[in-house]
Amino acid sequence: MITVEHLHKSFKLFASPRDRLKEALTGKSHHTQHMALCDVSFGVQPGEILGVLGQNGAGKSTLLKLMTGVLLPDSGRIDIQGRVTGLLELGTGFNTELSGADNITANALMLGMSRVEIEQRREEIIAFSELGDYIHEPLRTYSSGMVMRLGFAIAIHADPACLLVDEALSVGDGYFQQKCMQRIRDFKAQGGTILFVSHDLNAVKVLCDRAIVLEGGHIVANDTPATAVNHYNRIMAKQASQEAQRQGEENVAFGTQEVVVTACQVEGQESQSHMISSGEVLNIHLRLKANATLEDIALGILVRDRFGQDVFGQNTHQHQQKIAMQAGEVRDVYVSVKADIAVGKYTLSAALHPSDHHLSRCYWWHDHLATFEVAGYRESKFSGICRLSCEFSFLTRVD
Length: 399
Known about the structure:
Layout: E1 2-14, H1 17-26, E2 31-44, E3 49-53, H2 60-67, E4 75-80, E5 84-87, H3 100-110, H4 115-129, H5 144-156, E6 162-165, H6 174-189, E7 193-197, H7 201-207, E8 210-215, E9 218-223, H8 225-238, E10 259-268, E11 275-278, E12 281-290, E13 294-304, E14 310-315, E15 323-325, E16 330-338, E17 344-353, E18 364-377
Parallel strand pairs: 3-7, 3-8, 5-6, 6-7, 11-18
Antiparallel strand pairs: 1-2, 1-4, 8-9, 10-12, 12-16, 13-14, 13-15, 13-17, 17-18
Helix pairs in contact: 3-4, 3-5, 4-5
Protein name: ABC transporter ATP-binding protein
Keywords: ATP-binding, Nucleotide-binding, Transport
Domain ABC transporter: 21-241
């Protein structure tokens, strides 16, 4: 279990090394104070995964370093029951001149394992890392993915009560990422506590029970993963312009408003309603109005399921279709999507931005702009989220 109460951490910022020396010699202040974390409080129960979201500089790394003991807080309390291990930065605690096998010993000792525990689990660690004979090669010959494999294998076999996972899992091939995710789920099912820091919003939605959002060292959201992700998206959009004001309701559009969607209609091509069949074409009609002259506009749509998980998203930039509009111009846009997706309720979000994404600049973003429901199948039934092209072939052999 993890309990964090009223945590504060600040750093002294010096304009130059000279100012640092002046302060050390004279005792007079030559620095500015940067508050990295301010009155941060939260708890994580056994068997719970808490996601942590925030833009760069929000305080995520400082929080993890405080929780692992690398830094000490200015004030506040951190209570972690049981052994805590962290997979924070690739290569942390590793010696690149030693072999992978020797690094297992060194790193596991740093995590609090005894030499007896290390030897008992050495073969399991090597097998999970899938490094094979490379385990005896110097770590400097490893790729970043191989280092991640070894680091995660050691951390998960250290029998931690709490696991801190940073962005490291974004490295490595898809198969090993799935393997790590499954091990995290198993760890949770056994009552383990996990703090999961990631910019992979889908991973946060799928894995986490709750999520917090950090902004400027403060917790600005502590809610369900879907709600926290929407809050994080609003923060990223707010960066686009000082004029963009974060709205408290999910169903309010935000952005610079240089171009906006003034009307939206979603209906099935055959059903002529928001209730469609799986495999039916979904017709989306959006009306755009430009409040400024813009030469580069990308219109994007995003379909989410009832869990808030992203099912499908695409924009006109990815289709190599450039939109330019004059101030005051109104334009209708029609989007057709073959909704070969599972039965259930879905929401449609839409965004307007330059280039491929809204992270650097956002004209307009609206979560839950419209809803629709998939009921029944036009073609054969399937399992999962969506239908993929699939064929079965048979060959009869005659002996």
